UniProtKB/TrEMBL annotation:
Keyword Glycoprotein belongs to the record: no
Signal peptide range in chain numbering: none
Taxonomy of the source species: Eukaryota, Fungi, Dikarya, Basidiomycota, Agaricomycotina
TM segment ranges: 266-289
PANTHER family: MRNA EXPORT FACTOR AND BUB3
Protein keywords: Membrane, Repeat, Transmembrane, Transmembrane helix, WD repeat
WD repeats: 4-36, 156-190
Protein name: Mitotic checkpoint protein BUB3
Species for this entry: Rhizoctonia solani 123E
InterPro entries: WD40/YVTN_repeat-like_dom_sf, WD40_repeat_dom_sf, WD40_rpt
């Protein structure tokens, strides 16, 4: 085992850029360090240590851009070729602590997740036209078994973009993995629950495998950690990660495949299914009344569209 180097406090994030053979590590010691992964010693691999204003929670790289999520909901965006100052300093769109960051593989932006069961989709281009496309959504929630109209909210611990389709996966402390089409703003699929919280996700280079790290994330305090059984599950990935079209039939199939435990899904389900059935039934009833009453005016009116 080759030790590249050390931090003075907990190493909270590690990200790798294969195009530049560069490794970035972030720590609670408020430093961000870059390493040349081809080196064989700590002295030869260090590419610099950069002081941060806050503790580093998460990092990710794409191309020459490095996104750093800090305490205090800060997000710094760097060009790794010029690390003396950030290209952009932002405040997270999410209200609570940053838990995960993943860059889009096309280099257009990144996704950011928080402990409050939300994910935001952000873009690098600072122009108002592009920034108007960013949005956030709720996820990894389910109705409380004891309280009415109350959701249990779970932290989103990991994000990973698919190398081919550009969709992404999110893993939460509820023990599930969700696949999302961020362009169409849709959830594509949700996996059955794992026995522990999902702590990390990673696709392989071809995108047909997904490694799911599971383990206790301290959501229930110290007692919950005593029964934890961490592990890694490698699952096959199929059509659930493909970009979904936006036609009505796909919307209906998507609604049918989901658990209908949220109010907005129940509303759309009733809108697309109940209303057409009710409308057809009403036309048949009116037609029958017209025939029985021999009302020629209404009969002609009903025949007119056809």
């Amino acid at each position: 085992m080759n030790v590249l180097g050390t931090h003075e406090a907990t190493v909270s994030s590690v990200s790798f850029n294969k195009e530049m053979n560069m490794l970035a590590t972030g720590s609670w010691d408020k430093t961000l360090r870059l390493w040349d992964s081809r080196g064989t010693s700590a002295k030869g691999t260090s590419a610099g240590s950069f002081e941060q204003t806050e503790r580093v929670y998460r990092t990710d790289m794409v191309g020459t851009k490095l996104v750093v999520g800090l305490a205090g909901r800060l997000v710094h965006i760097y060009d790794v070729r010029k690390m003396d100052t950030p290209l952009q300093i932002r405040e997270s769109s999410l209200k609570y602590m940053t838990r995960a960051i993943a860059c889009m593989l096309d280099g257009q932006g990144y996704a950011c997740a928080s402990i409050e069961g939300r994910v935001s989709v952000e873009y690098f281009d600072p122009s108002p036209e592009v920034q108007s496309k960013r949005y956030a959504f709720k996820c990894h929630r389910r109705p409380s078994p004891t309280e009415k109209d109350v959701d249990q909210v779970w932290s989103v611990n990991s994000l990973a973009f698919h190398p081919t389709y550009g969709t992404f996966a999110s893993g939460g402390s509820d023990g599930t993995v969700c696949f999302w089409d961020h362009t169409a703003k849709k959830r594509l699929r949700q996996t059955p629950r794992y026995r522990e919280a999902v702590s990390a996700l990673a696709f392989n280079s071809t995108g047909n495998k997904l490694a799911v790290g599971i383990g206790y994330m301290w959501d229930e305090g110290e007692e919950g950690g005593k029964r934890s059984r961490p592990g890694v599950v490698v699952r096959d990935v199929g059509n659930e990660v493909k970009v979904c079209c936006t036609c009505l039939s796909c919307d209906l199939l998507g609604l049918m495949s989901r658990r209908r435990n949220h109010k907005h899904e129940l509303f759309y389900y009733s809108l697309f299914y109940t209303f057409p059935i009710f409308g057809v039934s009403l036309i048949i009833i009116v037609w029958a009344i017209c025939v029985l009453s021999e009302n020629q005016f209404l009969l002609r009116a009903l025949r007119w569209p056809w």
